[in-house]
Design a protein that fits this description.
The protein is of the alpha+beta class. Strand 6 and strand 7 form a beta hairpin. Helix 1 crosses helix 2 and helix 4 packs across helix 6. The radius of gyration is 21 Å and the shape is elongated.
Length: 253
């Protein structure tokens, strides 16, 4: 019949019966991989691991995988999250090693749980991030010695605007308003390897719209202190709900 709507031939895809919530890390050279790079790697890994991933309907079905708040390209992370819908009930404990072995080195699966254990949308639970900014010794400029004073200056400010180029032009972000807690790490951070003389800053950041990135925290530190601080190497240590003004230790439970 003229004007009738085309529908795909064949049976409908199997329905999703479970969502698996995965926490993974981006380490080493993999910190330079983009979100799209990871998406391609994960889809291949799901196939290699033999997971019964659910697919959307339509002429161009795609795997039902949800991504949320990926770390910026160039940063490492110990707390990236993704959800995978599957058509058969699985034991999360058996999925973790299968998926980890199927991903490239540096993309490491840390935890897998049933998403039903933490109801609601994944993005709703990702309210803040804890970042470690490693300022390396031996860089040009004043070096890490100027970092503590810069941290104190940022904390003392009421507002620190940093410009980011958006699709519609530059936009000012209030870095100070997004920062919940900022300090020079009082003890070594196991996830952040350091050399002698390095200084690590811990920054708890509320996820605003858009989310303030480590690069903008660095820019704000330079701006308020007037010190030409070297660009830090940034690692996200965790992300999740904000409890009592801090980013909670765990999301998956």
């Amino acid at each position: 019949m003229a004007g009738s709507r085309r529908v795909p031939e064949g049976p409908a895809p199997d329905p999703a019966v479970q969502r698996l919530r995965v926490r993974y890390a981006k380490r080493g050279r993999m910190r330079f991989s983009s979100t799209r790079d990871f998406q391609r790697a994960l889809e291949r890994a799901v196939r290699r691991a033999g997971l019964p991933v659910a697919y959307s309907a339509g002429f161009h079905p795609h795997p039902k995988i949800s991504y949320a708040n990926a770390a910026p390209t160039g940063t490492a992370s110990e707390a990236e999250y993704v959800e995978i819908s599957v058509t058969r009930q699985l034991d999360p404990a058996t999925v973790a090693p299968l998926l980890d072995e199927s991903l490239p080195d540096g993309l490491d699966v840390l935890e897998v749980s049933d998403a039903a254990d933490l109801p609601g949308a994944l993005a709703d639970h990702l309210q803040g991030s804890l970042w470690a900014l490693r300022f390396r010794a031996g860089e040009d400029g004043p070096g890490p010695a100027a970092v503590p004073a810069a941290v104190a200056a940022l904390l003392a400010a009421e507002e620190v605007a940093v410009s980011r180029m958006m699709k519609k032009g530059p936009r000012d972000l209030d870095v100070r308003g997004a920062v919940l807690h900022l300090e020079v790490a009082p003890a070594p951070v196991p996830e952040v390897p350091v050399a002698e003389g390095d200084v690590v800053v811990l920054a708890s950041v509320r996820h605003t719209t858009p989310t303030v990135r480590p690069e903008e925290i660095w820019t704000a530190l330079r701006q308020v202190s007037g010190a030409d601080l070297p660009r830090p190497v940034s690692t996200r240590l965790r992300q999740g709900p904000i409890v009592d003004g801090r980013v909670a230790e765990t999301l998956l439970g």
